[in-house]
Amino acid sequence: MKVIPTQNGDVAVAQAADVNSADDTKTASFKAALAQAEDLPTGVKLHKGETAKHVEGHAYYEITSGDREGMFINTSGNVRNGQAFVLVRKHGKEYHIYGTGKDRLVVGFHVPKKAANDSAPAPKADLSDIKLRKDEKIEPVEGHAYAEIVSGPRSGMYINTSRNARRGEAFVLVEKADFNFHIYGSGDDRVVIRANKREVD
Questions:
Q1: pTM for this structure?
Q2: What mean pLDDT do residues 27-34 have?
């Protein structure tokens, strides 16, 4: 068998180039992962292939690539620090949903209102005739004829502020498919009103 030295040399050089190229790629990805890890707060770890960026003004990061892209990571330092969650904004509140099924935990927050100089304030509706219980406060829900009860024994419920026969009555709001359901009362006295959802920009 005859061996031609130049061919062996070419193969060796090609193999060395491939190894160097693979090493460069691994080194670059390792450096990127290391830089990402150094930027993350203590106790916060990403899955392989994930990147994240801090959400300004909040104690969490958004996962911007990888298998959990679009989720967020708690960086507050509290008991949920480092845990991933789904973020939902609804009716002036922000909900952080951790886990699924029976292990699901939903944590709600009020979203701070925009500064007065961000936009001209909308005219306030006259709610002087709406009777509240002791320690209750309400906040109008933009684009709807109801207000959310934000403190007191019925916190989380809503009050009808329209000019119809149910004005001033409290209800539970349920969203399902393309409809909102306003549930007044309970038991035999329960009344369920179905309303179309209205998109509010």
A1: 0.42
A2: 53
